[in-house]
Design brief:
Elements (H helix, E strand, L loop, with lengths): L2 H28 L11 H25 L8 H24 L6 H27 L7 H15 L8 H29 L13 H4 L8 H31 L5 H14 L2 H12 L5 H23 L9 H25 L1
Helix pairs in contact: 1-3, 1-4, 2-3, 2-4, 2-5, 3-4, 4-5, 4-6, 6-8, 6-9, 6-10, 8-10, 8-11, 8-12, 9-11, 10-11, 11-12
C-alpha cells in the first residue's frame, strides 16, 4: 500500500472523530444539565470529573505521539485511537452534565467553559493531524497538544462550589472597575491634554483644539462622576466581603441568590467603562448624563438586591444606607452641573 493510500485510510477515522468531537463540544456549549431527584454529591462529582479530565489529556497525548514521527499508524490503529479519544470525550461531557443548576449557575458556567475549552483543544489537535499526518512533529501540533494540556490543567484551579465561583467573578469585576477608575485619574493627573501620548507630531495643530482638552466646566463635572464610580466600586467590594463572610451554598434558595447577585454585579463594570469613555474630551454632556443614569440604576439595583439577600446581616444595613446616600448625592450633583451648563 502506498504512503498516500495509507494516509487516506488513517484519515477516515480521524475525520469521523473530528466531526464527533465538534458535535459533543457544541452540545456542551448549548446543553442543559441532567436535573435529577436523586442525591447529588459535589465531592464525588469533582473526583469523577478530574479523572475524566486526566483521561482526556492522556488520550490526546497518545494520539499526538502516534502521529509525531514515521511510520504512520495503520487504519486499524487509527480507529483504536479515535475510539479511545471518543470514549474520553463522551465521559468528560457526561460528567459535566451531572452538575445540576441547583448547585449554582455561576459554578456551572465555569465548568462548562472549562470543559468546552478541553474539547476545543482536542478538535484543534485532531484537525492539525488530519491536515498533515505524514509530516514530522510540527510546531502547530506541539502547540495544539500543549493547548489540550493547558485546558486540562485549569480544572485544578476551578472553584469547588458556587460561593467560591461567585467570589471569583466578583473579584474580576472589581478589578475591571478599579482599572477604569485609575485610568481616568491617571489621565487627569498626567497632562492637560489626555491625548498627548497618542497623537502624532503632525497633529500638533489639532492639539491646540479645545476638543482635546477638558475645560474647567468639564473638570467640575468629572469630580462627582468619579465619586459615583467609586461608590459603585465600593458596593462591589462590600458584596465581595459579605459573600465571603456569609455566603451559603447549603440550600438551593441561597445558591440562587448568589447567582442573582453575580449576574446583577456583571452590569457594573461595562457601565463604568461607558461612563469613563464619555468623560474624555470633547465631552458630550448628554452622553455623560445617560451613562451616569445607567450606572446609578445598576448600582442602586445591586445595593437593594444585596440588602434583601442572605449575605447582608443587620450590622451591614447602615453601610448600605450610607452607600445609597453617596449614590444620591453624586447623582444630584451631576444632574445640577449638567443642567447648569445647558
Amino acid at each position: 500500500m502506498s504512503a498516500d493510500n495509507s494516509c487516506a485510510d488513517v484519515s477516515v477515522p480521524l475525520r469521523n472523530l473530528l466531526n464527533s468531537v465538534q458535535c459533543v463540544r457544541d452540545r456542551v456549549k448549548d446543553g442543559e444539565s441532567n436535573e435529577s431527584n436523586g442525591v447529588f454529591n459535589l465531592s464525588n462529582f469533582w473526583d469523577t470529573l478530574m479523572q475524566a479530565v486526566k483521561a482526556a489529556s492522556q488520550e490526546a497525548t497518545k494520539l499526538s505521539l502516534a502521529f509525531s514521527k514515521p511510520p504512520l499508524p495503520t487504519q486499524e490503529d487509527g480507529e483504536k485511537f479515535a475510539e479511545s479519544i471518543q470514549k474520553s470525550v463522551l465521559a468528560l461531557s457526561t460528567v459535566y452534565y451531572w452538575l445540576p443548576k441547583s448547585h449554582g449557575i455561576t459554578l456551572r458556567r465555569l465548568v462548562r467553559d472549562a470543559t468546552a475549552e478541553v474539547l476545543d483543544g482536542i478538535v484543534q489537535l485532531v484537525d492539525v493531524i488530519v491536515s498533515s499526518p505524514l509530516q514530522s512533529l510540527s510546531q502547530e501540533q506541539l502547540q495544539s497538544t500543549g493547548g489540550v494540556w493547558s485546558a486540562c490543567d485549569q480544572f485544578a484551579h476551578l472553584p469547588r462550589d458556587n460561593r467560591a465561583a461567585v467570589l471569583g467573578v466578583l473579584a474580576s469585576y472589581i478589578g475591571v472597575v478599579k482599572d477604569a477608575i485609575e485610568e481616568m485619574e491617571q489621565a487627569q493627573a498626567e497632562s492637560q491634554d489626555p491625548f498627548s501620548d497618542v497623537l502624532d507630531d503632525e497633529d500638533q495643530d489639532s492639539r491646540g483644539n479645545q476638543d482635546t482638552y477638558w475645560s474647567e466646566e468639564d473638570r467640575q463635572l468629572m469630580a462627582p462622576c468619579q465619586g459615583l464610580m467609586k461608590a459603585s466600586a465600593a458596593c462591589l467590594r462590600k458584596l465581595l466581603s459579605a459573600v465571603k463572610a456569609n455566603g451559603n451554598v447549603s440550600m438551593p434558595e441561597t445558591v440562587a441568590q448568589l447567582d442573582d447577585l453575580a449576574d446583577i454585579s456583571k452590569e457594573i463594570s461595562p457601565s463604568v467603562d461607558d461612563l469613563v469613555l464619555s468623560l474624555y474630551p470633547p465631552m458630550d454632556y448628554s452622553g455623560v448624563d445617560q451613562n451616569v443614569s445607567v450606572l446609578y440604576f445598576d448600582t442602586a439595583f445591586l445595593s437593594s438586591s444585596l440588602r434583601v439577600s442572605h449575605v447582608c446581616l443587620e450590622a451591614d444595613l447602615n453601610w448600605v444606607q450610607f452607600l445609597n446616600g453617596a449614590l444620591d448625592h453624586n447623582l444630584q450633583k451631576i444632574k445640577a452641573l449638567i443642567q447648569g451648563s445647558s
